[in-house]
Amino acid sequence: MPLHQPGGSGRTKAGRSLPKSVVSLTLFLLSFISFTNQPGYAIPAFARKYGLPCSACHIGWPILNNFGLAFKDNGYQLGNDKDSPIYQNPAYFPITFRVTPQWHLENQTKVLIDQTGAEQSVTTHGFDLSGLDIWTAGTLYKNISFQVLPSMGEGDTFHFESAWVRFDNLLNSPWLNVKVGKFELDNLLSEKRFLTLSNVGGAWFNYHFLPQGDSNGFGGIGDNQLGVELAGHNQNSYSRYSIALLSSVDGNPGLTTTNAGAAAGSTARTYDVFANVNQGFAVKGLGVQRIGAYGYFGQSPTFYLTSNGAPVEAKGNRSFSRVGAYGWWFIKDLDVETFYMHGQDNVYLGNNIPANNPGGLPPGAVGPTWNGGFVEAHYTVNPQFIFTGRYELVHMSRQANPTLAQTPNLGNVDSWTIGYRWYPIMLSRAGLAVHNEYSQAKMGNTSSLTGTDQINRSVMIGFDFDY
Amino acid sequence: MVLTSITRKIGRREWRPWLQILTSNGELLMNTGSKRLGLTLVLALVVAFPSWAQEAHVGDLTGHAANGKKLYRRYCVGCHGSLGDGNGDNAQWVDPRPRDFVAATFKCRSTPTGTLPTDQDLFNSVSRGFTNSNMPHWDSLPAQNRMDLVAYIKTFSPRWQSEKPGDPIKIPPEPAVTAQSITHGGELFQKMECWKCHGQQGRGDGPSAATLTDSKDQPIRPYNFADGKDDSRFKCGGTNDDLYRIFMTGLDGTPMPSFADVIQPNDAWDLVHFLRTLQVHRHSKENDVAKGAGIKAPAPPSDKEKPSGSGN
Question: What is the mean pLDDT of residues B244-258?
Answer without folding.
Answer: 94
